[in-house]
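quick one before i forget lol
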Amino acid sequence: MKYTDLKDKSVAELNKLLKEKKLEVFTLRVKLKTMQLTNTAELKAARKDVARIKTAINAARTK
């Protein structure tokens, strides 16, 4: 996911997407702790996606 894809979305869409990504981060963390996660880079990518979404929300609110 790239920031350019996110900047055109509304705040409501971004909040929905943020909720989904936070749930994904949670499930990945649980899988990591139970030794079920094979690709640990997925967790890093999901956390970065959350940060990108939060950045887009803050940019949309300041306009």
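fyi The two ends are 22 Å apart (CA to CA).
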